Amino acid sequence: MQRFKLVFFCPVPSTQGVLQHLFAKFPRHVGRIGLYGGCAFVSRGTGQFTPLAGANPAIGSVGTQEYVEENRVEVLVLPDSPAGPKQESRDSVQVTRVVEELKKVHPYEEVAYDVYRLEDF
After folding, report:
1. What is the pLDDT of residues 63-98, one digit of tens each?
2. Which residues pair with 118 in a beta bridge?
3. What InterPro entries does the database record attribute to this sequence (predicted)?
């Protein structure tokens, strides 16, 4: 079973709303570790960015460097179906759905995120 870790950065006031939405939309796939649900690791830091010409920033102004208190959020994304032929492509489709949903509910115009393939040992 191919698992993924989704890491994204979110303004502190919006973090719980985004997480709860993903947990509710994908209860069997996002934030599940064994018999535990709603699992995430959240750490706080400062994000920085400068909106460029043509941007429509949720925070800040075009051309001005912004500093925002953000959370780094880490959650597991599990596959949709048991292992079998062509499983890897189905697993990738599931994580793609989760990222698409993240982009819909996240407050930023451009969401900063990473997806990592995980290995079992």
Report:
1. 999 999 999 999 999 987 655 555 556 667 899 999
2. 3
3. DUF34/NIF3_sf, N-reg_PII/ATP_PRibTrfase_C
Q: Which tokens hold the place of 36?
A: 């535990």
pTM of the model: 0.89
AA identity, residue 22: L
Contact assessment for residue 1 and residue 79, using Cβ atoms and an 8 Å cutoff:
yes
The answer to whether 31 and 38 have CB atoms below 8 angstroms apart is yes
Tokens describing residue 26:
């994908």
Produce one character per residue of 45-79: b if its CB has 16 or more CB atoms within 10 Å, e if not: eebebebeeeeebeeeeeeeeeebebbbbbbbbbb
Domain extents in the chain: 3-80+91-116
Q: Which CATH architecture has domain 3-80+91-116?
A: 2-Layer Sandwich (3.30)
Structure tokens at 45: 């830091």
Residue with tokens 């191919």: 2
